[in-house]
Amino acid sequence: MLRRAGIAEQDARERAHTVINTLEGAELDAQVSHSEQPLHIAGRHLARLISSYRG
Questions:
Q1: Cα separations (Å) of 7 from 2, 20, 30, 46?
Q2: What is the pTM of this model?
Q3: What's the mean pLDDT in 48-55?
């Protein structure tokens, strides 16, 4: 999706890793805290981050 949005190959790959790592961390936090809040927070911030890449 990042490539289709016009982001260069290497940048898209690195940003995809950032998204995956953030979600994995949020999932672990959600499991430990027995709360969905970490996932919601991560989702909001990742949406902003991805939107900022599109200009």
A1: 6, 17, 31, 16
A2: 0.80
A3: 77
Q: Tell me: the pLDDT tens digits for 16-26?
A: 999 999 999 99
2-20 core/surface letters (b: 16 or more CB in 10 A; e: else): beeeebeeeebeebeeeee
Q: Which two tokens stand for residue 16?
A: 């995809």
3-class SS of residue 35 = coil
CA distances (Å), 39 to each of 6, 19, 43, in order?
Answer: 27, 12, 6
From 27, 24, 44, select the one nearest 35 (Cα to Cα): 27
Q: Which residue has the tokens 């919601």?
A: 40
* C-beta separation of 7 from 53 below 8 A: yes
